[in-house]
Amino acid sequence: MEQRQIFSSALYGILAILTLVLAASFIVSLFLRFSSMEESSVAWFLVLFSFLAVFIGGFIAGGKAKRKGWLVGGATAVLYTLVIFLVQFLGYNQLFDLQQSLMHAGYTGASVLGGILGVNLIGGNFRE
C-alpha cells in the first residue's frame, strides 16, 4: 500500500513538472519567435526554471504523500530523469553526457528538498 502511495504521489509531481516545463517552453518559444532575442540569451533562465519546476514537483509530491518526503522527492526526480532519458535516447539516439548527468543529479537534490518541505509544510502532522 505504501509503495502505491509513493508512486502515485511521484506521478502527481511528474505531471506538475511536465506542465510547468511545457508552459515555460511555449512562452519562451513565443519570445524567441516574435522578438530579436536569441537562444543563448535565455539559456540560463531555462536552467533556473527547470530547477524550480523540479523543486515544485517534489514539493507537490511530498505534500500529496504526507510522509517520507525525501523518498517521494527522489522518486519524482528519478521518474523525471527516466522520461527525459527515454525521449532523448529513443527520439534522438543519444545518451546523457557528463553535463546532463550533473544537471539531473542537481534535479534530484532539488526534488528531494522540495519533497521534504512539501511533507513538512502541506503534508499535515502525521506521526507513526
From TrEMBL:
Keywords recorded for this protein, A-Z: Membrane, Transmembrane, Transmembrane helix
Record keyword Transport present: no
Domain of life of the organism encoding this protein: Bacteria
Residue ranges of coiled coil: none
Protein name (record): TIGR04086 family membrane protein
InterPro entries, A to Z: DUF3792_TM
Residues spanning the membrane: 12-35, 41-62, 69-90, 102-122
Alphabetized Pfam families for the sequence: DUF3792
